[in-house]
């Protein structure tokens, strides 16, 4: 009888609209992730560990600045567009227009100021002058990063998941095809591939705009600025801290290790990134739904189903990923990347914990509307990652970087999870 009940429960979970939509986004994310991984595999084999290290550090800086410059616009857009799109479309469109204008203005400021600051920062922190030009390219890439994320998050907030898939997959496919063409014609350098990485998302942004409603026509978008930025201020602070904390392993590795070792670590990090992409796919579906719930009972039932699903995915990923890594890494990256197997296994456990954290994290942002909590959690994560990372990387090289990520993800799982449980208990006692 127990087996029958459990089986019925599993069938119920798998038949929900959320799971079906998650399967849409997850399948698209898997295809997108495979295209992205092939892109990185090709680059790693063509460039070798040292040049691949240069490319990887540049991308890490690009995404770090892009996440900070976003000032919480992605999360705010999903929150408010998802909240108003069915009740007040004009107001929802104002949030779209405001978000786009903010991104463009911040990017122009970052590009104009950062261009002159790059040499001093690179020489002072990394002591690697060869990174100056790639870092300047990365500043241009901040623009494509911000604009492309606008299109994808706007589609997410409108729950247009098939189009969301198409824009993401199409962009990655075009980038891969251009890269293969450049390799065929002999254009082999980290800066060339970095330029492709930067420019193609501009096309993705334009493609996404074609499927969005005509929000440009709305006027007085400043009217929603107060609501937008009151919510976003904590998102922005969290993103500032989390963006740095999420890449401190690469930054410390670049400062303490050779670019060759950075390339080895980056290859392991990139291969493990399929799990964060699944996390993103699940969050794409879960976030707007949580934003629309009006009772704890609905939220708890929904979160339980998502939690079961994420635990299953995490266990499956570890069970499959570890034994395959010893065969996949040398085949995909080449013999010069055999050392990446060790850090990959550690990172796989870290990312599995990240996956299990999805229900707690998304409920804090979109149901409880308390992003402030993650500012403090991110500070704690940085203290753990920087403190442990500096010691571990100095003593254990790129393996130390992987251990630091694992410690940070354990912290990021335990604290939000306990907070959500306490919040639901407190709410139940009040009722």
UniProtKB/TrEMBL annotation:
InterPro entries, A to Z: Poly_Biosynth_Transport, Polysacc_synth
Transmembrane segments annotated in the record for this chain: 21-43, 49-69, 104-127, 133-155, 167-187, 193-216, 228-248, 268-287, 308-329, 341-361, 373-393, 399-422
Membrane topology: Multi-pass membrane protein
GO CC field: plasma membrane
Keywords: Cell membrane, Membrane, Transmembrane, Transmembrane helix
Superkingdom of origin: Bacteria
Cellular compartment(s): Cell membrane
Main location: membrane
Pfam families xref list: Polysacc_synt
Protein name per the record: Polysaccharide biosynthesis protein
């Amino acid at each position: 009888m127990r087996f029958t009940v459990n089986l019925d429960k599993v069938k119920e979970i798998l038949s929900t609209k959320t799971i079906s939509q998650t399967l849409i986004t997850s399948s698209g994310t898997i295809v997108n992730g495979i295209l992205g991984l092939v892109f990185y595999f090709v680059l790693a084999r063509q460039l070798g560990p040292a040049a691949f290290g240069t490319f990887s550090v540049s991308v890490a800086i690009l995404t770090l600045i892009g996440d900070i410059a976003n000032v919480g616009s992605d999360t705010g857009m999903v929150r408010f567009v998802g909240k108003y799109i069915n009740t007040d479309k004009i107001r929802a469109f104002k949030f779209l227009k405001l978000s786009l204008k903010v991104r463009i203005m911040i990017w122009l400021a970052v590009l104009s100021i950062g261009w002159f600051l790059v040499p001093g920062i690179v020489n002072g922190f990394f002591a690697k002058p060869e990174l100056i030009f790639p870092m300047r390219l990365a500043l241009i890439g901040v623009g494509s990063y911000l604009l492309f994320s606008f299109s994808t998050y706007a589609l997410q907030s409108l729950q247009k998941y098939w189009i969301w898939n198409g824009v993401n997959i199409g962009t990655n496919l075009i980038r891969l095809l251009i890269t293969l063409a450049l390799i065929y014609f002999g254009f082999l350098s980290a800066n060339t591939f970095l330029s492709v990485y930067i420019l193609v998302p501009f096309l993705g942004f334009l493609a996404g705009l074609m499927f969005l409603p005509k929000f440009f026509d709305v006027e007085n978008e400043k009217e929603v600025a107060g609501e937008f930025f009151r919510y976003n201020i904590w998102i922005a602070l969290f993103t500032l801290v989390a963006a740095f904390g999420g890449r401190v392993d690469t930054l410390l590795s670049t400062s303490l290790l050779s670019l060759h070792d950075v390339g080895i670590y980056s290859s392991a990090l990139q291969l493990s990134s399929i799990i964060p992409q699944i996390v993103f796919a699940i969050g794409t579906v879960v976030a707007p739904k949580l934003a629309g719930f009006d009772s704890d009972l609905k939220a708890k039932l929904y979160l339980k189903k998502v939690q079961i699903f994420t635990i299953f995915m995490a266990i499956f990923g570890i069970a499959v990923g570890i034994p395959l890594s010893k065969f996949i890494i040398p085949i995909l990256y080449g013999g010069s990347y055999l050392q990446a197997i060790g850090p990959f296994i550690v990172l796989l456990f870290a990312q599995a914990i990240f996956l299990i954290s999805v229900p707690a994290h998304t409920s804090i942002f979109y149901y409880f509307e308390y992003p402030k909590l993650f500012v403090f959690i991110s500070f704690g994560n940085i203290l753990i990652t920087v403190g442990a990372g500096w010691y571990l990387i100095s003593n254990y090289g790129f393996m130390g970087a992987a251990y630091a990520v694992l410690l940070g993800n354990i912290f990021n799982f335990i604290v939000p999870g306990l907070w959500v449980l306490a919040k639901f208990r407190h709410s139940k006692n009040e009722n």
